[in-house]
Amino acid sequence: MGNRCAVIGVGQTQYRAKRTDVSLAGLVREAALRALDDAGLTFADIDSVVLGKAPDMFEGVATPELYLADALGAAGKPMMRVHTAGSVGGSTALVGASQVQAGVHDRVLVVAFEKQSESNATWALSTHSPFSASLVVGAGGYFAPYIRAYIRRSGAPGNIGMMVAVKDRLNALRNPYAHLKIPDIDLAMVEKSMMLWDPIRYLETCPSSDGAVAMVLGSERAAAAATAVTGRRPAWVHGAAMRSEPMGMAGRDSVDPRAGRDCAADVYRQAGVTEPRRQFAAAETYVPFSWYEPMWLENLGFADKGAGWKLTESGATAFDGDIPWNPSGGVLSSNPIGASGMIRFAEAAQQVRGQAGEHQVAAAADGAGLALGHAYGGGSQFFAMWAVGAAKP
Amino acid sequence: MTGFHGRRGVAVVAFAQSEHSFSDLGWTEADLVMPLVNEVLATTGLRRSEIGFTCSGSNDYLVGTPFSFVAALDTIGAWPPISESHVEQDAAWALYEAWVRIQHGDVDTALVYGFGKGTVGDYAGISSLSYDPYYIAPLMPGDIGMAGLQARALKDAGFDVDPDPTPPPATDGAAAVILAAADVARGVCPRPAWITGLDHRIEPHSVGARDLTRSASTRQAALRAGVSAGPVDFAELHTRFEHEEPLLRRELGLEEDTVVNASGGPRKADPIMATGLIRIGEAAARIHDGSARRTVAHATAGPCLQHNLVCVLEAGEEAGEAGED
Question: In the CATH hierarchy, which fold is given to the domain comprising B10-121+166-322?
Fold first, then answer.
C-alpha cells in the first residue's frame, strides 16, 4: 500500500439535470475550488492533477483534460485522465492516491465530472462499434436481466427495490448537493411510476445529472499541515483496490461478480476488516438501480449470499439503521456518471471526517469507525473501492 | 536524476508492437492487442498470474464507440480478476501510472498496452473535438491546422522547417510493454532497460497562451527526468510532424550525435494512443539489444505539443541500483 494517504479536502457542485450556468471548465473548477478551500490550499499548492470521467461521447469533447488543464490549474504539472467506465470516479481517486502512496507527490487534486445534459446518455452508452452488434439498450436495459436473475436466485420479495428507492430519496433530503428531492416519496409513489426495464421502475433508477466532485489527497505531512490550518481532520485511506474481469467470458457470474468480491477482500485485508457490517459505520456504494443495494450487500460481504434483501427489508441500511448505506442519497439521487464513483469515495471520507452535515451518521464521526466508498462499471466488471477512517492506519 | 533518489528500481523488460497497417485489415482492437500480450509474456517467461498491475491507453473516438478498452480487456485473460486501470491518453501515460503503482512496493510487475485504429476515423475531425469546445472546436482546426501554427512560428523564428506540415498516414496498431521491479527484472531480462528518469508536464491548452517556438513542458519534464545527466545514444521522439524534431531536440538538450527515431518514428507508424508507448518501447529495445547504454523516449498529447512525457532508460547494474531504496 506504500505511504499513508489522506483526504484533506472535499468539494462538490450542486447536482442538477442541467447546469446551464457553467461551462465544462466552470463546472470542474467549482468542485476543485471548494476542495482546495476545504483543505486551506490554493492551486499553487497542488503537485499533480488527476481527472476522471466516463465516455467522452457524453459531452462530445474528446480527451477533455487537454482543454480543462487551464481551469484546474494544471499548467506546469503532471496531469492524468482516467477512464474505467462507471467505476471511473473511484478509479480516479485511487490513481491520485497511488501517487501519494508511491511517495511521488505530496498533494494531488483529483477531479471527476459529467455534464450529461450535453448529450443523451443512453445513446452514448449504447455501443455502436463497426465490429459488433449494438444492443441499443443503455444501462437500464443491460442491468435489468441481472436484477431479474438476482430476484429469482434469492427469492426476494418484489418490493425490496422500491424500499431502496424510498430510503435513498429520503436520505437525499438531508443532502444539500443532491439532484432529486422528492419530499413526499413513498412506496405507493414508486410503485405507480412507469416500468422502464422490468423490474426497474422510473423511480427505481438514477437520474442523469450534471456535476463534479473534487478531493485533495495528501501525504502525512500535507495532512498535518492542512489540519493545522483548517481545524478539520483528514480521512485516512485504510485500504484501496481495483479489480477488473472480462465482460464476455462465459461462466462468469455477472450478478455476483468475482471482481467485486476480490476487490472487497483486498480492501478489507488492508484495512483489517473481517466483519464489514459491524466494522463499517457507513457505506457509500454505487447503486444506480434500486435492486443493486441488496446485490452489493451480498457481493461486498455485508450479508450472506441470498440474504442481502433481508438487511434492506429490516431497515438495517436506512439512515437510522445499524449500517447506513448511501446516507447521501446515493447514485439514485445524483448521477453525473463519471463523477458518481468519486462522490461515493468523497462522501465516505466526509462521514469519517465528521463533515457530512445533515446526513452525518453519528457512529461514523466518533473517530474510530471506518466508511466504505465503492464504485462499479462496465458490464458489472470494473470495481474500485476504498476504506477510510479518522484514525491513522 | 532529480526526483529519482530513493525510488524503487523499475525496468522495461519486454516490448512488442504490431505490424502496423495503413489500411483497415478488419482487425478489432482486441485482435491487435492479444498477440502482443502473448509475445511480451513469452519474452519474459512470466505467467499472466504473475502480473501485478495492468494499465492501458486508448481513445474511444478513434472508432467512434464508448468503452473501446472493454473489448480489449476481454483478450488479455483477466481471470481470475486483475488489478487494472485505463487512461484515455496515450499508453505512455498508462506506463507512468504503472510505474507509480510499482513504487508502492507490494507489486513487482506491470503489463502496459495501448492501441489505436486510426484508419477507420477522420483524425482531423476527431482531434478537433479535443480542443476547447466553445471557441476552437467549432472552427474544426484539426491536428494539421494546429501543427501549422507551430510550424509557421518555428519557421519565423529561424528554424529550418517546412511551414506546411503533413501528418503521418493513419495507422492501425498496438504495443505492449512489461515493467518489472529490480529483482524480478534481472530474472526475466538479460539487459533490463532501467527507468532512471520519468516525468510529464502539461501546459495551458490555448496556443495563444504559449510561446510556440518553445516547449516549456518538455524542458521541465526533461530536467526532472535528468536527461542531461549523461550522453544519450538514441532518442525516440513523438514527432507526428517533422518541424517538432528540432524544437524537441533543443528542449530535451540532446547533443548532435544523438540518433533520433532510428525506428522510423511516428512518421512511419502512428497508431494513435500507442505511438507514445512505442517510443518508450523502441528506446528500451536499443538497450535490450545492446546497441545503446542510455536512451531517451518522449511522448506528447494535445495541440502543438501541449502535454509532454520524458523517460530516460539506462543499461547496467548501476542504473538498476541507482533507483533502488
Answer: Peroxisomal Thiolase; Chain A, domain 1 (3.40.47)
